[in-house]
Design goal:
- The complex is a heterodimer of chains A (297) and B (240).
- Chain A is α/β, with parallel strands linked by helices and 297 residues long.
- Chain A has eleven helices and ten strands.
- Chain A has one domain: Metal-dependent hydrolases (TIM Barrel), CATH 3.20.20.
- The longest helix of chain A has 17 residues.
- Chain A is globular, with a radius of gyration of 18 Å.
- Chain B has 240 residues and is mostly helical.
- Chain B has a domain of 149 residues.
- The interface between A and B is medium-sized, with 30 and 32 residues.
- The complex binds zinc ion.
- The site of zinc ion has 6 residues of chain A, from loops.
Chain lengths: 297, 240
């Protein structure tokens, strides 16, 4: 089983997690920029965090055989803090970089006017930088938040196939399916969505534009939920090719729209031995690059 | 491709040169766009080593470094009447750059070296690079610009760091001209420390010690013959 976890916050995970993920088949991840639990109070904190996603975390993942990409954005929660909003001015520098495969996570947390302003602005940035968008839907008042999200996406003029609406459940999946956007499901240990409910949704809605992630972070979460969902699919009678589609080919197709994935066609065994000139769906493969040997503590 | 671009980026093939021309044109339309054009250069122009035996570009700048140098040279001339604006943007490109972009800025410095106003901005960038353990940045920092502008203490520490993280001394510009007795003493002491820890000394250390024979004599006789280069720090990213 080869796995691309399309939404995971590795910055808050340990090297044990990286080892277990690799053993379970994870070969690539996308880490969206998000809230750190402790609120930031300045733009500089964001920039250091973005630098860490692009530098240190990519290097660390590489040491464990996993290709690390990131999505860059001002998250919904901190869009409400005037000390943080100025980060919008430096986002274009980051959105131009290699390995940045989407704008994200953007969207709503508490559905405030400030959140809507930051969300709309960043949908615009995605269009300007030719990037897909990863949209977070709120944990409270989810159905109304998802509806409003889809309205704003439609108003933005972005093609729906360049937008992934995440953290969906049985109550919100239908409206997203009808919108033409990609459907993301975060599989958690006990609340929200679990792998068996996920399998039932795949049975009902099919595999097209379906994305499964662990959304693992510093909270109670499990970075192996992608693999466990794959196993649950097999147990339910799905074939290996179906699992590969949901856990590998779908996220590759979605983020591949950026033209900036750092993976090769095989995906399974990293870059060794493949053609150095190869590209995958127009995405360049970074080779001959030495990891960043920056100091660690 | 203009002569200036050809001088900055001699190893680009025809296709890459044409793409570089397009970026220079985009820049001419609005020079402020450097902030998003510069990070995108490897994707949009070319990526890879100029010399296959030198994948990290420690001796000869990689293709994307050459293209980025050409863009910075073009920007410098577009903003020739406002050099402060140029140096400010240069520092911003380094500050917000990933390791590849930072390396390219460092590589470009010698081509952009125009005087004191420039040094006030660019020397701190070189010093920042030397504080990292990133072989690509350390190598670029010890290029021609560092050789010309680093004070003797910083320059010697830079050479020592090259030995420590495994940057070949071929990457150090003006090594023959700037190496002195004090550097040889530091290198000899470092090699003795490694010998005491039961580790071989970096083969490149002899490139300094050979010129100051008496300082490394004990190392030659102590059975620490030049051999395997010590690059543990670079490959694990960890200070040992
Ligand atoms: Zn998240």
């Amino acid at each position: 089983m080869r796995i691309f976890d399309p939404h995971i916050h590795m910055t808050s995970r340990t090297t044990d997690d990286y080892e277990a993920m690799y053993a379970a088949g994870v070969r690539a991840v996308t880490e969206p920029a998000f809230w750190l639990g402790q609120p930031r109070t300045s733009v500089g904190s964001f920039c250091d965090y973005f630098d860490g996603l692009l530098g240190w975390e990519r290097f660390r993942a590489g040491q464990f055989g996993i290709r690390h990409h990131c999505a860059i954005a001002l998250n919904p929660k901190e869009a409400n803090d005037p000390r943080c909003v100025e980060v919008l001015d430096v986002l274009p520098r980051y959105l131009a970089k290699d390995g940045v495969v989407a704008v994200g996570e953007v969207g709503f947390d508490s559905m405030t006017a400030d959140e809507e302003k930051a969300f709309t602005h960043q949908l615009q940035l995605a269009a300007e930088h030719d990037l897909p968008v990863l949209v977070h839907t709120p944990h409270r008042d989810k159905a109304a938040g998802t509806r409003r999200t889809l309205d704003l996406v439609a108003e933005s003029g972005l093609p729906p196939e360049r937008v992934l609406v995440d953290h969906l459940n049985e109550l919100t999946v239908r409206m997203v399916a009808e919108s033409g956007c990609w459907m993301g499901f975060s599989i958690y240990p006990d609340t929200k969505m679990d792998e068996h409910r996920m399998v039932a949704i795949l049975r009902e809605y099919g595999l097209e534009k379906m994305i499964v992630n662990s959304a693992a972070d510093w909270g109670r979460s499990d970075p192996l939920k992608t693999a466990k969902t794959g196993q649950a699919m097999l147990d339910d009678g799905f074939g290996a090719a179906d699992v590969d589609r949901v856990l590998w080919r779908n996220p590759v197709e979605f983020y591949g729209q950026s033209g900036r994935l750092l993976i090769d066609d095989a995906g399974a065994d990293g870059a060794d031995g493949a053609d150095p000139a190869a590209t995958f769906q127009g995405n360049s493969v970074l080779r001959g690059q030495r990891p960043t040997g920056t100091e660690e503590g | 491709m203009s002569t200036r671009e050809a001088r900055s980026a001699p190893d680009l093939d025809a296709t890459a040169s044409r793409r570089l021309d397009e970026l220079v044109q985009e820049l001419a339309d609005d020079p402020r766009r450097i902030s998003t054009i510069f990070p995108a250069v490897a994707r949009r122009v070319a990526r890879g080593p100029a010399d296959p035996d030198d994948p990290d570009g420690v001796k000869r700048p990689r293709l994307e470094d050459q293209a980025r140098t050409a863009l910075l040279a073009a920007l410098a001339s577009m903003w020739a009447d406002d050099p402060e604006r140029f140096t400010h943007e240069l520092a911003q490109l380094y500050r917000y750059g990933d390791a590849d972009e930072k390396r390219a800025v460092l590589r470009a410095l010698s081509a952009l070296d125009t005087g004191a106003g420039m040094s006030a901005v660019s020397l701190p960038l070189v010093e920042d690079a030397l504080r990292t353990n990133d072989v690509r940045l350390v190598a670029a920092a010890m290029g021609p610009y560092g050789a010309r502008h680093l004070d003797p203490d910083s320059w010697r520490q830079g050479v020592l760091k090259c030995l420590f993280v495994g940057v070949p001394l071929d990457a150090v510009a003006e090594l023959g001209a700037r190496a002195d007795t004090e550097l040889a003493r530091m290198v000899a002491d470092y090699c003795r420390e490694r010998a005491a820890a039961g580790r071989s000394m970096p083969a490149d250390a002899w490139r300094v010690l050979d010129r100051f024979g008496e300082l490394g004599r004990d190392l030659r006789t102590a059975g620490t013959a030049p051999g395997v280069s010590g690059t543990e720090a670079a490959t694990t990213g960890r200070e040992t």
